[in-house]
Every structure is written in C-alpha cells, then in structure tokens.
Amino acid sequence: MDYVLWVADEYAFDRVYSSFGYLGLPTLARDDILRQFSSLMCISGFGAYAIYMIFSTVSFYLFFDKRQMNHPRFIKNQIQQEIKMATDSIPTMALLTVPFFILEIRGYSKLYEDVEERGWPYLIFSILIFLLATDFGIYWIHRGLHHKSVYAYVHKPHHKWIVPTPYASIAFHPLDGWAQSLPYHICIFVFPMQKFLYLMLFIFVQIWSILIHDGEYFTRDPVINSAAHHTVHHLYFNYNYGQYFTLWDRLGGSYRKPSEEIYNSELRSQMKPHSKQDREMKAMASTLED
Ligand SMILES: [Zn+2]
Ligand SMILES: [Zn+2]
Fold first, then answer.
1. Ligand 2 center to residue 159 CA distance, Å?
2. How many CA atoms lie within 13 A of 128 on its CB side?
3. How far does the centroid of ligand 1 lie from the alpha carbon of residue 112, in Å?
4. How far is C-alpha 207 from the chain's CA centre?
5. What is the rounded CA–CA span in Å between residue 53 and residue 207?
C-alpha cells in the first residue's frame, strides 16, 4: 500500500494538503498519522468502489448468463439492491481496514521490496502460501459466520442473493466483508511477501470474488473453487465455504460437487432444475433459521 500512497501523495494529495495552509489549517506532513489515515480512507474507499464497479460490470456483460434472471429466486431489482448493499458497506469496511494499512506503511509488516532479498524461488513459493493460508482463514471465518449465533446478524444479508450476479461479490454486511478479508491483512504480519506481488494479489482476490459470483463456469477442475462451487454455496448454504480451492472444504467435510444442471448452461436455464433448486434451497434454509 505504500506504493499506492506514494503515487497518490506525489500526484494529488501533496497539493490538497498544502492548500490547507491557505485556509489557516495545519498542512500535514506525509508521515503524519492523521494524514495517512484520511489519505488511506480515500484510497481504499474509492479504490474498492472502482475495482468493484469496473470488474463487476465487465463480468456482468461478458460472462453472466442473463437467463439466470428468470430463476424463481432472482429478486426484483436485485442488481440495484446488490450495488446498494455493497456501496453502503464500503465506507465501514474501509474504516475497519485502514488500521492494517497504517501498520503496513509504518513498517510493522513483513513486506519486503528487493526480490533478491529472498530470491525468486521464495517469491513463487509465497504466492502458493498466500493462496493456501488465506483460503484456510476464509474457510473457517466463513464457516463460523454460518453458525446460528451470528448468521442472522452478520452473514445472512449476503445470502439474500440465492442466484447472485457479479455485483453480489462485496454485497455484504460491512462486518462480514471485513471479517472475510482479515486473512489478507494478517498474512503479511505472519510471513514475508514482496510488496508489489502482495499488491497484485490483493487486487487479484477482489477480482476473484467477482468471478466466483458471475455464474460462468470456465473449469470443471475438482481442485479449483469455481463459480459453480460458489453457486452451490448460495443455493444450499452449508457447502463450499472456500475461496480458491476445494481443499479445505474436502478436509472439513463441507464439499459438495456441483451437479450437471449447474455446470451445463442449457440445463441450468430451464425451469425444471430451477424449481428443484428452489425446493431444495427452502428445505436447507429452514434448517439454518430454526
Ligand atoms: Zn457469495
Ligand atoms: Zn455463506
């Protein structure tokens, strides 16, 4: 995040903060914590909104099968509702996330700059560790959010979308979105990562969360937690909590293979599978909310 903050300071914020002087306000230095906090709030709020709107819109027009909007569980004005929930949550999620960014730019994380410091093999290895470790963290946090004691208060809003569109990717209660992003912020305090690689992966995970909600099933790979697996999660709740891989669901006993009517685009656009999914989903939902 210090790359991003440096660019923002260099090309925009320096001028903004120096103009404070004309108003008789203190011109805050780049390393002033109040300035870092407000700058990072702007960057993370607008950055999250831009990534969300751009990639969700691209995914919606290029990949999302619009016939899914005929599903009996597709809500009237659902896309507007998904966008509203996401945009309402972004400021609170940013507020809760900025303390991690401040710790990071103040040098408390294990991020490093020079690739040669740890070599290329470690750089490649760190990608694998990042994906496996954060997937493990999200698996347990997501599974925990399905516990009856918290589900209705925190995670249920995201499950309003039985047939999600790409705009559902961050349509969460803010605490839910923040809780599920914790592994990304904590991991850099646990193991070293190259700064630029981490930034790229951080953007990649936001795009990945859009892709698993777009209903386009590029792969039937049994290892990858694809949109088909996340579709199963939105339809039947208690399966496929993972983010990138099916590994932790398989080990945790919550794996459910997507059926042929989910994988096959012709079958899944027909009413018969829709009605069957509707019946199964209602039966599953009733067990959650007892
Ligand atoms: Zn989801
Ligand atoms: Zn869930």
1. 6
2. 5
3. 32
4. 8
5. 11
- Whole-number pLDDT of residue 271: 57
Spatial distance between the Cα atoms of 282 and 284, rounded to a whole number of angstroms: 5
| Joined tokens for residue 197 | 């690689």
Measured CA to CA, the distance from residue 2 to residue 195 in angstroms comes to 9
Inter-residue contact 35 to 17 (CB < 8 Å): yes
Coil, strand or helix at 159: helix
Q: Token pair for residue 64?
A: 């999302």
The tokens of 95 are what?
Answer: 């507020």
User: Measured in angstroms, how far is the CA atom of residue 69 from the centroid of ligand 2?
Assistant: 21
Structure tokens belonging to residue 102: 């401040």
Ligand 1 geometric centre to CA of 25 (Å): 44
Low-confidence ranges of the chain (pLDDT < 50): 289-290
Distance (angstroms) between ligand 2 centre and the Cα of 272 equals 25
Closest ligand, as measured to the CA of 254: 2
Ligand nearest to the backbone CA of 243:
1
**Gap from CA of 285 to ligand 2 centroid (Å):** 12
Q: Model-level pTM? A: 0.88
Predicted confidence at residue 290, as pLDDT, reads 42
